[in-house]
Backbone:
């Protein structure tokens, strides 16, 4: 009787277990369900995507041959609108689709932009970009067209045709009355630049609202990191605020002029010290090698020294010229917060 009760209990337990874990009960090979689950986990790589068909992730976009050709057409050192470098075709395509909205949206924008570009006369499309080929300018216009529209300029072709705005023409005329020998760069339909085009933007030069005093290399465009190097190198600070510029342009000019003088003085001292060390070591007193050593990879400053000598420094705009730009209602690029553009003036 006890045996029957025990058998019955075992049967009851077996029934209960079966109802809770049917996979472990039905095993014709005599394996445990836990063993089967362990084998199954080993068969599926940890990184495998087991998402169901209803929730599958979309496949990553793979750049096409056309994408690769497009990327190669663009100038080197391209960046996104934030100034972050775009170094590969994959990064380019990812940013392009993000900026335009999607791959499909880009194709639509591309079709419209290319149709407009192909109707332009050379006198118009040649204003796009700088020294790029016509094919590269065609690609640039796709980016510029959207940037113009995003900036509130609904007819980009008309903007490029007209060039300088009436406001800029009038104010620049006021400055040139006092400075007849002034040379400036005119309209260029291009993205903003910071050691390369920032795709997804349009420069004030492209809207006809800005000029550069030429040659630009005498008064360079520095990024903030380069400008901080100059301040640290000279142990100086400069208030470049727009508020100060509007109140007294001469004060801003004077501080940058004095900063340049301090830079030249310090550079000469350090270059002479390096040259003396080289002479003591029996090496040639090579000035370019000396200032490259002192400037520690500061490419813009090194290039300026190579072109104009270390006595030039980085700044030589005339005080009266800068002040007259201010009086005419221009904003000086030296007052920008995201960079220091010494040759740039805009309305």
Residues:
């Amino acid at each position: 009787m006890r045996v029957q009760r025990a058998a019955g209990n075992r049967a009851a337990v077996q029934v209960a277990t079966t109802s809770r874990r049917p996979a472990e009960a039905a095993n014709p090979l005599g394996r445990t369900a836990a063993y089967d689950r362990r084998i199954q986990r080993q068969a599926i790589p940890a990184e495998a995507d087991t998402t169901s068909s209803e929730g599958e992730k979309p496949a990553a976009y793979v750049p096409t041959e056309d994408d690769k050709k497009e990327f190669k057409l663009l100038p080197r050192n391209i960046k996104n609108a934030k100034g972050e470098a775009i170094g590969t075709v994959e990064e380019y395509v990812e940013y392009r689709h993000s900026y335009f909205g999607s791959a499909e949206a880009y194709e639509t924008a591309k079709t419209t932009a290319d149709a407009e570009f192909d109707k332009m006369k050379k006198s118009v499309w040649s204003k796009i970009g700088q020294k790029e080929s016509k094919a590269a300018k065609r690609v640039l216009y796709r980016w510029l067209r959207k940037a113009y529209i995003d900036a509130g300029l609904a007819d980009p072709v008309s903007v490029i045709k007209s060039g300088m705005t009436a406001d800029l023409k009038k104010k620049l005329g006021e400055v040139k009355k006092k400075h007849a020998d002034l040379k400036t760069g005119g309209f260029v339909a291009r993205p903003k630049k910071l050691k390369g085009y920032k795709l997804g933007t349009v420069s004030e030069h492209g809207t006809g609202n800005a000029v550069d005093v030429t040659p630009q290399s005498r008064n360079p465009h520095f990024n903030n990191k380069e400008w901080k190097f100059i301040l640290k190198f000279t142990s100086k600070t400069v208030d470049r605020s727009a508020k100060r510029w509007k109140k007294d342009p001469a004060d801003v000019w004077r501080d940058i002029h004095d900063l340049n003088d301090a830079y030249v003085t310090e550079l000469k001292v350090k270059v002479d010290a390096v040259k003396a060390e080289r002479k003591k070591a029996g090496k040639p007193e090579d000035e370019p090698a000396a200032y490259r050593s002192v400037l520690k990879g500061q490419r813009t400053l090194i290039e300026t020294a190579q072109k104009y000598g270390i006595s030039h420094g980085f700044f030589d705009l005339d005080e009266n010229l800068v002040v007259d730009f201010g009086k005419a209602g221009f904003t000086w690029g030296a007052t920008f917060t995201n960079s220091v553009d010494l040759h740039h003036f805009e309305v």
